[in-house]
Amino acid sequence: MAATASILRSTFFFLKPPYRLSPFTQTFPIHRNPHHNRQFTRHFSTPRPNVIQILEQRGLLDSLTGESLRTLCSDQSIRVYCGFDPTAQSLHLGNLIGLIVLSWFLRSGHSAVALVGGATGRVGDPSGKSLERPELDLQTLERNINGISQTIVNILNPNPNGSNGSVTVLNNYDWWKDVKLLDFLRDVGRYARVNTMMSKESVKRRLESSDQGLSYTEFTYQLLQGYDFVHLFKHENVTVQIGGSDQWGNITAGTELIRRLHQSDSAFGVTFPLLLKSDGTKFGKSEDGAIWLSPVMLSPYKFYQFFFSVPDVDVIRFLKILTFLSLDEIEKIETGMKSSGYVPNSAQRRLAEEVTRFVHGSDGLEEAVKATEALRPGAETRLDWKTIEGIAKDVPSCSLGYDRVLDVSVVDLSVSTGLIESKSAARRLLKQGGLYLNNGRVDNEGKKIEAEDIVDGKVLLLSAGKKNKMVVRIA
């Protein structure tokens, strides 16, 4: 018996631990993002919009656990939740659909909970993974929890469309830290059926495709997430859980536990499609890595720029999924794309504007648009130090002394800073009209840097073509 107890203590993380993360209050304190500047008035028209119908029309509905939810969401206000595991310091573009679906519920007069997995994040969701997630140390975990929670608040609170809904950010560690193993097995575990748990797609795929199989810790994840739904159902009046299509097994584990524990059929699950391109690959990564939602990890300018890479074949679908434009307006954009006078990338520009406004607010969008226009080679917009510094973390940069810049030819400076690999390549680019200093085309091979070229006495911007740039700080 002693040996058995020892194994159980090492296996289950939810025995009361010797450490404690800083608890979250039920409503996360709002520290306004300086990019957000939103004003709204509270109003709501009747009849209530049917949020399930809206999701279905926009391609945001994959599955429902019960068709009666369609009627219920029109007849009364409901409370919905979506979970986010703290695997990084910020949410990324793949998480954005969850926030958009929560926002559609808010805009339709419902309320929402965003649940950060301070407890479940210690285990790791096996869904869609071929290997077990690496374990995070407590300092990293708490940093991620704070970062993700702040991102959610910045985007969803307040809801910009002026609905009656509100969003609350919770941390599931606040209840899991007090759960004892024997109590959990007696009160919850007895209702979990192993054959049902084994049949979940996330479990079957790992058992069939991975040489390492599935650890018992990961196997219990669906039960832990299921119990989160039980807790929120009982204590927060949450009746709907939403998640990506890969979360179906975890979501139904929750509705089944609620049915067994509370003899209730009033809990529902809703899944939305994963964010994929038409070729079936994931949408949400650039050559530099993940597209983060936090401005701390990715500037609004870089975020905005990413959406110009969307192929024409995907842009209309993404306008329906990732924006709140009316379907009529999106249809007009689609019609315009087929006309002879269509300006390439106009639809992508609208997509970039709408998504950036939702994630970074109107101020963030203004910053991104201003930087985009100002940094376009040949643009007439006057560059200033602040605009150049705003993109410095998104493009290569270097620092040089004043004496190493003044009276140096643009050709030589382009090579010494690493923008262009050789003087011959720089001269060739110059002759082709592709070498720029502060967005002005350099036509003369003998052009040297003068004092007035240094923007606000602090920086230079060199460009090789439209995309390759180098910020030169004057030390």
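(the above was protein one; protein two follows)
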Amino acid sequence: MANFVLQVPNSLGSFTVSASASSNGSPPLSSSGSSGGGGGPVILELPVDKIRRPLMRTRANDPVKVQELMDSISEIGLQVPIDVLEVDGVYYGFSGCHRYEAHQRLGLPTIRCKIRRGTKETLRHHLR
């Protein structure tokens, strides 16, 4: 696993970050490229409480599926990262609802995320 410096907004406080190359071979997030597209998605561990879930209350998660994921995550860890959109230093999750809830219920402080950067217009599109 590589060590590198990641610049994050002060509002996130301090936390440990680990990264790996994504399955598409895109490079890890660099400290110099803080805005704009470039590079594709990056896999990072983010604090669960720093991911906003704007659509979380639109439907209830299947409790059986959440329990199955909790059992699996406890035994072998999260196998598929959740997709997260980063806009102006704020992280938004629109998918991976069951995996996110499983992490919350297990009391895990972080969750593996596939992060892609977007604009406010991209965020508005997801909120429609």
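Reviewer note on protein two: The beta strands are 19-20, 42-47, 51-52, 82-87, 90-93, 110-117.
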